[in-house]
Amino acid sequence: MTLSDSTPSWKKLSLYAVTWPIFVDFVLRMLLGTVDVFMLSRISDKATGAVGLANEIIYFCILMFGFVGVGTSVAVAQYIGAGRAKEASRISALAITMNLIFGILVSIVLVSFGESLLQLLKLNPEQIGIAKNYLKIIGGFIWIEALSYAVSSVIRSSGNTKSVMYVTLGVNIIHIAGNYLLVFGNLGFPEWGVTGAAISTVVSRLLGIIVLFILLYRRISAPIHRRDYLKWNGSYAKKIMSIGLPAAGEHLSYQSQYLMIISFVNMIGITALNTHVYVMNITNYFMALGIAVGVGTEIIVGQMVGAGEMKAAYRRLMNSLKISFLLTLAIVGVAVIFRHELVGMFTNDPEIIAAGSGIFLLSIILEPGRTFNTVVINSLRAAGDARYPVLMGTISMWGVSVPLAYVLGVHFGIGLLGIWIAFTVDEWLRGLMMLLRWRSRVWEKKALVKPASVSDMGA
Fold first, then answer.
1. In the predicted model, is pLDDT for residue 35 greater than 90?
2. Of 33, 87, 302, 454, whose CB neighbour count within 10 A is largest?
3. Secondary structure (H, E, C), the chain
4. Distance (Å, rounded) from C-alpha 301 to C-alpha 315?
């Protein structure tokens, strides 16, 4: 924001304009994994289940990269809202460096211990042989996704969400083309199957991060200098971590309890695992809508809080919640009508199609609750209130979801449906706890920055 433009940055943003590119971007990002699952399902269900579980480990790592991304997004949005553009750029540079270092460490862990992780999740020995090479290739270059997450968060925080969407679209086109050539050996290329899918994913992501860095320097309001990447600023790091570490704790709690529950699914049987992988690859797209509205609202609420506009922030979240809830209910309702056809896109096995279709019916209750939970948590973080969600989330996930999944799915023999019932109870319970926190307005006292005066705008 400049002196010649006195309009607050948050007033220039509409939820629709900010959110729809985020939704498309998230859908396209998920397509990277879904395309692998869809194409490999043409080879065998065993290959699909193996890659699907390997991708769960990859998703776990990507979500952990989000701890810096989330902290950066909130801090940058609040600095922009407060009219402090140069500081927003400096904190962005620090966040990018932090995520790169973290990404390299994760890559080392996945390359060194990938097979052990697959064994820990009780994957069928035959499938471990398929999954370990896929995990090693993608895991070795997972630092690219760490960089991508940080840079994308910075670009989005200013409200510029379309640029990131276009990059992700390009990455997907390259990935699909790479799979076509390397998975099946078309046009004279080698037929590498699962390995080809992994190589295609890495190459497309590498090209994507190069373009994102070009966009970063064209879109930010104040330039980032080389020294900003190397200069440590404890105050900025503390602000990032004050939001990022609790967010990481919540993601860690969610993914670890989810992987624990996946081990229950493996105990039920390979058919249950394959069914779960196929259904999750579809329902992830329902989740994308809630995540997109949540992130879009987070950007706007963050700028409002930075500007000191607490009443406007409160209303923004309540309106976003109504919109996301109704949209999710409508989309899931339509998907349920075509549930047999959707599962049938991945497999011809009648047992898997029947089980997956039953899970879809439950999604009418599950997905609105998940959206409810996601949108409110993002706004609490945007306001600087990051500790409460992780505390309540951990209590619900490990105190309700995990034991209930085991009792219903394994002990009482309800199977995969029982496990998804546990997911549903957990999402609604957390959603209601988050809403009560928002309505308490405790978050109004937790802003990271204060608005700049007219005399130091852009400082």
1. no
2. 302
3. CCCCCCCCHHHHCCHHHHHHHHHHHHHHHHHHHHHHHHHHCCCCHHHHHHHHHHHHHHHHHHHHHHHHHHHHHHHHHHHHHCCCHHHHHHHHHHHHHHHHHHHHHHHHHHHHHHHHHHHHCCCCHHHHHHHHHHHHHHHHCHHHHHHHHHHHHHHHHCCCCHHHHHHHHHHHHHHHHHHHHHCCCHHHCCCCCHHHHHHHHHHHHHHHHHHHHHHHHHHCCCCCCHHHHHCCCHHHHHHHHHHHHHHHHHHHHHHHHHHHHHHHHHHHCHHHHHHHHHHHHHHHHHHHHHHHHHHHHHHHHHHHHHCCCHHHHHHHHHHHHHHHHHHHHHHHHHHHHCHHHHHHCCCCCHHHHHHHHHHHHHHHHHHHHHHHHHHHHHHHHHCCCCHHHHHHHHHHHHHHHHHHHHHHHHHCCCCHHHHHHHHHHHHHHHHHHHHHHHHHCHHHHCCCCCCCCHHHCCC
4. 10
- Cβ atoms of 214 and 152 within 8 Å: the answer is no
Q: Model confidence over 271-294: pLDDT tens digits?
A: 888 888 888 878 877 777 888 888
Q: Distance between the two ends of the chain, CA-based, in angstroms? A: 11
pLDDT given at position 396: 93
Q: Can you give the pLDDT at residue 33?
A: 66
Higher pLDDT, 263 or 4: 263
> How sure is the predictor about 210, in pLDDT bands with cuts at 50, 70 and 90?
very high
The answer to whether the beta carbons of residues 432 and 369 sit under 8 Å apart is: no
| Residue 91, pLDDT score | 82
379 versus 129: which is more confidently predicted?
379
Residue 256, pLDDT > 60, answer: yes
Token pair, residue 114, equals: 């990938």
Most confident of 319-328, 361-370, 396-405: 396-405
d(CA 254, CA 248): 10
**Whole-model pTM?**
0.71
| Per-residue pLDDT band at 5 (split at 50, 70, 90) | low
